[in-house]
Each structure stands twice: as C-alpha cells, then as structure tokens.
Amino acid sequence: MTESELRGNGSVRKGCDPFAQTQRSKLQHRRARINQQINKEMRMRAGAENLLRATTNNKVKENVTLELSFVNSNLQLLKEELEELNSSVEVYQNENESINVPMIPLGLKETKEVELTIPLKDVIEEHYNEAACKYEKELKELMDLRQAMRTPTRNEAGIELLMEYYNQLYFIDNRFFPPTKNMGIFFHWYDSLTGIPSYQRALAFEKGSVLFNIGALYTQIGARQDRTTKEGIDHAIDAFQKAAGALNYLKENFSNAPSLDMSTPSLNMLVRLMIAQVQECVFEKVMVAGVKDEFLMQLQSAQEAARVADVYSLVYQTMTQPPVKNYVPFSWTTMVQVKSEYFKAVSHYFAAVALCDHTRKAHLKKAIIKHEEAMRIHGLCRILRKMDILQEVLALVHKRSLKKYSEIDHEDDFFDTVEAPEIHPKTQQKPDIKTPNFSKVKVTDIFHRLGPLSVFSAKNRWTPATEVHLKKSEKGFGFTLRGDSPVLIAGVVPDGSADEAGLREGDYLVSVNQQDCKWSKHTDVVQLLKNISTEGVSIGVITLITSEQHNQTDRKSLLGTMTSASIFSGNDKENSRKIADSSKSPGLLLTWNKKKNSGKDGSTFSLPFIAVADDGSFY
Q: Is the pTM of this model over 0.85?
C-alpha cells in the first residue's frame, strides 16, 4: 500500500502501490510508461508536421519527412505493445487451479498529476475573502485523495475510493469552478486502449474518466472471481452488471467525449461485452447448480449456451463495425468470435446428450464442426495462442465431443444426412444493467468550513463580511431571524439599533462576536444573542450580490469615475451600503476579469449528480 491515504468518515482510504511486485500492478505500471512514451512521440510528430508545412527548403523537408517516418514507426510499435498489454487478460483472472474460460477485463485509464493547490488558493483568497493558509489541511486532503484514486485496489475498497473522489468532485465543481469562467486547470487522461493523451479544462472530463475507471475496476473484480462455485459466479455476475451500469451511465450522460474509449460507439460495445460476460456466468451457474432431472438439465444447458453464443455474436458484430473496428484489440475481437463458436458447439453437444432421436448424431457433428472452427479462429491470433487457459478449455471440450461421437458411431449411417436443427436460445436469468449507487459512499465536503454550499458557491457573489456593532435596548437588537445555515435577517425594526447600523432584510448573519455562525442553526444563533449583555454585540453580515448589481459594480470600477455616493441618494440606504461595502474590495469583483485566457475551451459535457443535504453530506 502507498503512503497516499486519507481519512473520510472514520475510514482510511488507500490506493495500491503501482510499483508493487504483483502481476496486475506491474502491468498497470507498464501501461503508464507506454502512455508517456506515446505522448512524447505524438508531440514530436506534431512539431515535425508543423515544420513540414511551414518550410519551403527541400533539404529541410527531406530531413523532416525522414524523421516523421521514424516517429510514426515508433508510435506503431508502442501501440502494438499497448495492445498486447490490453490483451493480457490472464493477469486479471482467478489464480486457482480450476479451468475457466477467461473473461475480458478493462485496464484503468491513467492520468497525470495535476496541481490544484494554487488555483484553489486563489479562489479562496479572491472569491471567498478568506486566508488560503487556513485551508492547507483541506487542500492536502484533496490532493491525497486524487493521488490515491489513481491506483485503486482491486476490491470493493477500491470502488469506494473512486466513488469517494467522484462524489467529492461535486463539491469541488460547485465551490471552485464558476459556470462562465475558466480556472486554467488542465486535466490530462490517457485513452484506456490506445494510450493517446487527451486534456481538457472541463472538470466534467475528470468526472467522466473516474466513472470509466469505476466500470473498468468492476470488470477486473468480475474477472478475478472463482467461477467454479455458485458464490464466486454470483460475485462475478454482480461485478459485470455493475461494470455495464457504470459504462452505460457514462454513455447516457456524456457528449463530445475527447477520447475514443469514452465515445458512444465504444461504450455501447463495452456495455454489450459486459452483458455477454454476465450471460456466460449464468450458463456456468446452471452447470454448477445442476438439476435433479438430468434430461431437463441438459436441455437447459443447451438453451443457455445458445443464448451465450447469440450475445457474443452481437458483440462481435459491434466490434467489427467502424469506428470501433480499428480501435478494439484484435485479440478481443478474436476471443469474442471464438466464444460465439465455442458456445454454439457446447449448445449442440448438450442437445445431443439430451436427445435420443435421429438428430442426436447430427447435433454432435455440428458440435465438433463448431469446436474446430473455434480452434481455427483461435489459432489465427498470435496473442491468444499464448493463452494456455483458453487453449486447454477448447481442447478439452473438443475431445469430449469426439469421445461422445465415437460412442454412437456404430449407429445407422442413414441418419448422417440429417441437418441438426437450430437450438432455441433461452435463459433462466436475464442480465441487469446496474446503475452506480453513488449514495452508498457517504462523503463530507472537504471545504465544508467555507460555509453552506447554497450560499458560498462559485456561482454566487456576496459582499465582504461587514462587522456591525449593535447595542441591546429594551426592544432587543431590532431585527428578526429565520432559516438555518446561515441564518437570514428576516426583518429590521425601523429606527432600531440594527436599522441605524445599516442591517437590511435579506442579509446573512455569519458571525457573532467573531464566532463563526455560517453553519449554525436558527435556535443556536438566537440563544447566542440572548446571552449577550446590554453592552452590545459585534455581528458579521454579508449581502448576496445579484448579477445585475455585480455587472453594474464592475462597470463603475472599470471606469473609475463614479462613486457610490454620486449614484445613490442618501435615502437609498440599502443600495448605497451594498455598493459601499463592495467598493472596499474591488479585487473581489474583478478577479475573474483579471485572469488570462490560455486558449479556446475544448468540448465540454455535464454529468448529473445526486442530491446533497444542507450540511454537506450526500443522501
């Protein structure tokens, strides 16, 4: 385990060490290295192509063209190496000695480190008017969480870690990313299958990539289960259904994805692949459970196998259509085709065992033919030829069919001309696409101390907190309160202490005698004020600034020729106080205009989130 860990809700969150000496972690480390090399070669190619377009010197063109050929050759070799790693499905399988047909898992998307501390400190200082140094602990916790989620463990704890970060991004988005402004933060992620880097300023890209990894990790969890037991098969079914749900959720809520692995055609293919693997597990479940009536069991097995063959055939069709065709590893496409032929053969085998009529021999012949076709297709793929488990399974079932055929070979050859009928596919358990249940991982807003999100968010503007001293009279302080977190000034008594101090209806009370009250309940603030002596109290208030007021103030600050006194009459206390308070910190109002644009935004997309309570917790 790494030193990257954080504590949330009393539990420790950790990522696994990518350099640990385990097959899976070493594989992921090699993927990361290849991703970096591909990124470097692509930058070199882009530079060479730009130079080639710009130069008119024939000698330079010749040298650049030669350099481009080397770069393209290196890129092709790197992509082939990455494809072979993506085809290394044996690393993710269960390590017991049982023989199972291998499943196809997804590798995790890799990401580069991103520096969030400085930009978030700027927002805390400029937008929230607070000292950023007070939030060092929160900033470190966020960075630790992002670092840990890059290497999640291959179990439920790893899923919870990814979901915790995903849920936390809801708060980060609302706290620090204004809907109309650019933070200048780039999120870099590599395509899961090609290693091609993509980067965007949109936080939605970060959310989508984490969601992809949730689905990918579920595929790895499903592949590692011991499918020789009913319990192991049930766990595998659950994991693959949740993988399908995460990937389908991503497909339905994303548009204009910057990388191929998160494009609609790719996600559609991956969802179908997961459903097919669920169906395969259902067949294995029937085989493990068994049925008292041997005939019914064999007939059910034949129909289940036919169903598995059908869904893998659909996946194969999807994989061989552009644009997915040129994107999916050849070994995946081959394995899916092998499985389709394999389960057709298995289906005919069980039909032959179940039946005693003249089609029995025809079904066995069909089974043998399909087994041999599966073995032929398997032999065409260099990577699959190295996969001992799959080879062993194909050889065993082929021998089983040959042995059965030899047992009945003495029967009358008159029936050899009969064509085996197709077997009607039927399943006892239809796969279910399980949408991620994000609410099961409870999180608290890391930057909870900034105040309730309903008021203290990136989209809202408010005046700097104003300290007002009030004296208590026989009628009290001259104002009424309502609401919770933060408490709102509901009314101000004319000519009372609060009125004379400039308090107005709609102001938020955020402190009492320097005690922070942003999260205080109504009853707590009332009790606090009741305990104040007659000498008076110092309260801090803020006023939300509407978009119209904000724009007006910006224009006045930019012109620099008007003051609040020259615009509003003395009778207009509310507006004059708002502008006067705002003018105390002009940097607050102009902070987003001072930022420089570093280029055009890429395509953006949005993801829905679950509801959040006022206290900052998910429900």
A: no
